[in-house]
Amino acid sequence: MTQLSKKIRAATVGLLVSAAIFAAGCSNTAVNQGGEVYYNAKIFTSDDDQPEASALVVKDGKISFVGSSDDALKFAGSGATSHDMGGSLILPGLIDSHAHYLAINTWTSDVLPLQIDLAMTHDQILEAVKDYAEQYPAEVAPVISEMGYGTDAKPLATELDKVVSDRPVVLTNSGGHGGWANTKALEMAGVTAATPDPSPGISYFVRDENGNPTGEFKEASTMAIMLQNLGLTSGKAIETRFPVFTQTVLSPYGYTSYYDAGLLVADEEESIDALSKAGANIRVFTSFVYRDPVPVDEFVSKMTSVRDKYTSDTVRPTTLKLFKDGTLEDYSSLMFENFSDHSGEGVEILDNDHMMAIARAAADKGFNLHTHAIGDKAISETLDLYRDLGDIEGTKTMAHVQILPEDGIQRFAEQTDVFYQTTPVWALGDEFTKSALGDDRYGRQMPLNTVSQNGTLLTFGSDAPVSNGLAGINPFTEMYHAVKRGESDDYDPPKSEGIDIATAIKAYTINGARQVNAGDEIGSITAGKSADFIVLDRDLLTVPTDEIKDTTVLQTYFKGNEVYNAQDQQGSAK
Ligand SMILES: [Zn+2]
Predict the structure, then answer these.
(1) CATH number of residue 349's parent domain
(2) Residue 465 Cα, ligand 1 centroid: separation in angstroms?
(3) Which residues contact 19 (CB under 8 A, 6 or more apart)?
(4) Are 31 and 144 found together in one domain?
(5) I need a labelling partner for 525 at 20 to 30 A (CA). Which of 29, 182, 211, 406 fits?
(6) pLDDT level of residue 532 (50, 70, 90 thresholds)
């Protein structure tokens, strides 16, 4: 069956189901349908046709009824099991619309307590590496690796050599687009003056005047060389690690689906194969990351065959991931004009013709498109690309979208089919960004409220582990930043761009579902959709803004099954 006819069939079944329920609701004849009833709740459905309800019924992993408690109890009947929710708030299961959870779980070492974060100074990083090496001798931790260093680091091998020289150390920066190795790591990875750069000027080893690598490396292809040659990553690790990660990290935060924005370093088919065998309680929409100079036809035919082989309810290899530029931290975001405190206008990872060729070929096969764009020129050219592609079967998403071009608000208003995917905590002001951009561009960052009012669909994600490591995964912290931005002097610029909590919730639910082209299956509490929902400890919609970040999940249901219960966690911790 072709993708299209599958879609039509799914839509027809959906229509029949909703027609039956609608007819039943009107005549009140559908009673004793059985299932599990969750009643006496406050439900924010993320479904504009029925925004609120007080009960839902689940049968065979799907939502079979949404409405009042009385009607739900009648609908399910005497044979059903009912649960009094005591007035708790229920939301649809959350969807992280951009994260790298598979990459996190390709790390083969189980000892990873080394903690580096972007606020640490150069000396503090060296101190942390030194302490770690003392605590974990080479027999326990033969390679030292961690991600997350910030802009104060001076990434020279000789600096790391001062604290550890007996074994390899490889650190990657907080943006995930560059890294820092000691001399031992360069030696063991086989990187010398004779090693060619994967993509000169874009993905390369920084060198001294004699061509010797200094220890710093840029972009994903060099990271792959370092991490793979040192045996630090393997797609197969996903099979055992990812279900545990889901159970201990993702389900407790209420995630029931997410978009994986790329594997960074492991082989995609190997990773997808491992994910298929893992059986984790989450639905994963995975990416194929295109990198020059792989021929377009070859790449798209590989993507298509992997998709056709592995697609299931919980594994969806349905998106092409593209990089238009790098990151601001690396001065590699693509800008119309020079940075204010640094020469250069950033890096164009793929030129426009190349972007169009790969995007067109993948779109013709029904793939969704998801493009990394941070600088104003990268955003402008990605909007051009999406406009020139016209209508496609899949969806068009721009990720991060940090520094809008001068006409950016107008452009987004004209192209409301483009999803605006971002991580709200990035809107927090900081001196590095202010200095790199200058006042005018600094004021053009992430106008979330305006673009949302203009009809653009916002989607939020953690970008983990890029944004503040694992701490950045908490969706309620992100919602808090998205809302708080309009209310505090700490949140500039521009302060007027705070959004309301309902919009933030939709960015984590129905809009995320639409971004991955699954809006008819997940993302809202609607009869016929997968029974993915969460119960919260407070009413997120009415609490003071400052309390949004303190919200916790009491229960997470995935396909109707309880996959997390806060009470069990407390019980087992005792
Ligand atoms: Zn990312």
Answers:
(1) 3.20.20.140
(2) 8
(3) none
(4) no
(5) 29
(6) very high
